[in-house]
Hints:
single chain; 643 residues; alpha+beta; 8-stranded antiparallel β-sheet; 16 helices; 21 strands
Amino acid sequence: MRRLVGKKIVSIVLSLIVLVSIFFSWPVTSWAAKATISKSENTTPSGIPISGLEGFVDNYMKDYIGKTTIGAAIVILKDNQIVLSKGYGDADIEKNIPVDPQKTVFEWGSISKLFVWTSVMQLVEQGKIDLNEDIRNYLPEGFLTKLKYDSPITMLDLMHHTAGFEDYIFEVGYSSPDKVKPLEEGLKLAEPVQVYKPGDVVAYSNFGASLAGYIVERLTGQDFYQYASEHIFSKIGSQNASIHPKLSDNKKLLENKATGYKPGGPSQFNESNPLYISMYPSGAINGTAEDLAKFASALMLKEGESSPLFQKKETLDEFLTQSYSANENIPGNAHGFWEYAGQKRGLTHRGNTEAFSSNLHIVPEENFAVIILTNQTGEVDIRYGLTNELVGEEPVSVAVSNENMPDARELEGTYTPAQRTYHGFLNFYYELLSLKITAVNDREIQLGVLGSSANYIQTSPYVYKKIKGHTLFSTIGPIYFHVKNGKVTQISASTTDYLPVSTGKSTPFLIIHLILAILCVVYLIISPFVLLFQGIRRRRKKHPASPLQRWNSILILTGTAIVINNFVLVARMLMVSLRGYSEIVGHIVINYGLTALGVVSIVFMLVKGRKTELTKSQKFYYILSMVMFLILIFLLIVWQFYR
Length: 643
């Protein structure tokens, strides 16, 4: 992570000068009056003086705005008052519209899940939901059709993302509001297979959060967006935010919505599509940064205050209390919030859509909150880097004695994220996200993923905390290794666990498959040109093709068509990953049809080959064509391009 140490020191020195001159550079706020904060409390949790906060943030942001990120809205709260509310960069490049935290509308992404969990806790308070009850008691008979285990799934499992669902990318989002379906229908279309026993594995699930939203619908008799509007947005005074899947209840938001972008290269950005979701409770909120700040404020109370969201303070206290942790020495989950091991205990949730990214971080003990919204997908340097600077990271305490501390070398290996697809061709993509762990010494390991790395040190048995490395690993946080009989069975991390990669999906396995795939593709792409050349020669010599030659040509062209069909499929998914299954099922059907034609061709080649005298070179050529085709089909079966 870029620490900006030198800049931070300069900023703090300047801030002290400002304090001496009794000049407070607090931004003007739109909805909260300035409060007098005692000198001892006049800092962020990491110790940055509030009076110099704007200068510090400005200094940090200049390294990223226009270079790695188009625009961002940042709102910072201290004691329920806005101490910084500022926009950076552009909401729209072509129209030259600057970001305004009061006005610019962003997609909040998965921060929307916090509104689901708030709704659930409201119903818990009313006695309508029991967090430990089997959720099937709240659902229509037989609603969930892909459960593998008989064990009950509780509302806490949904909050902790331990219900056991695999990741299912189809039907999650669309680029057009016309494709959005009612929540119940959307859930039925996108139901994933249950692949883990409930309570055993943390695997982040959009489906699980949306399912909880649907339960709220059934218990209240209101569409979830209506319930959220009446019982959350109106309660906190939010007028510039909506969770309606089409924004039909507040079309004014569309007029002020930022354009979303994807990075296209150094300081280059490509306009992206907006997001519309049938399973909207998991990620459909559109709103301003200051409206999200109102939600954060409602979660942090001063002594004697009451929350507008709950009738009892005890409900809010329970909401923010840890409800799950894999180990006492690592952060866990607090009823849907992810805990953060900072200098003070934090609660956080991030969000990502096709073109926006966000982060909400509260420190209840300090009555401090950071809200960061950006109009760029996958942004990390501002969302995590700046947040870490403001809230501070927990000092890494390393035990002096090596006694009873396991050797790091037994943890080496490759691990796959539990939040992944197991069924369908997209399972291949998740193999590329595998976490590689190597031992630096007996107490230190290095984590590597997607070309980035970070070093972690063992602080207690099997618990490792980051000491240096890429900001990306801030999303993983401290980790805990579950070890049984000397072997790692599971790694617990923030938002998703990691599981050992099976022998069948190990690195040598992937390399062998890659080599085979390259051989097949090269052969099947070049061969049609060879066939064309042979055809021209035969025509000139007036030698018609034999039946065996014709079937060989059909086999090769069929294999080439299969390669092209799947290249197009992968390219379409890379360009727009959020699709309905109906948009790609045609490619799967084509795979089946072409494969059948190829198999028929091989059968006829074998029959004709027995009746035809062939030279050794001819036999080799025809056998090579059949082998390459069959290897291609084998790879497509293994990587589930028929599902």
